[in-house]
Amino acid sequence: xxxxxxxxxxxxxxxxxxxxxxxxxxxxxxxxxxxxxxxxxxxxxxxxxxxxxxxxxxxxxxxxxxxxxxxxxxxxxxxxxxxxxxxxxxxxxxxxxxxxxxxxxxxxxxxxxxxxxxxxxxxxxxxxxxxxxxxxxxxxxxxxxxxxxxxxxxxxxxx
Length: 159
Hints:
CATH topology: Beta-Lactamase
Radius of gyration: 15 Å
Number of helices: 4
Largest sheet: 6 strands, antiparallel
Helix content: 25-40%
Strand order of the largest sheet: 3-2-1-6-5-4
CATH architecture: 2-Layer Sandwich
Structural class: alpha+beta
Shape: globular
CATH class: Alpha Beta
């Protein structure tokens, strides 16, 4: 669905292409784990300057590591702990410009400097979170929050 030549387009076009690819790959008739794996790969492909993109899935009072692209990560995060756990507990997106300034940050990759987490909610029930990390300070802003919320909405449609 996408080619290497598409990487030369500006970031806004990349984000449009990301959404188009997600629409093409997400499929309610295949296992959710397959959809999450493809979604993390597509996000990693279309987002510049990130070192991790993936999912943590809600189970009881924890988030469990799901499909991702990047270095190995923490396998279990208590609800309400770390950036992912707080975003999950509050069911609100969270953008951290400098993880060193976030007192409850859980270090999985010491190269990560900024982070964005988008909760995945279906019928008022937390499914999990989408988590992106970057080795650059303040990598994520409102533009990224909006595009990732649109991406998550596409995922929620097939859950």
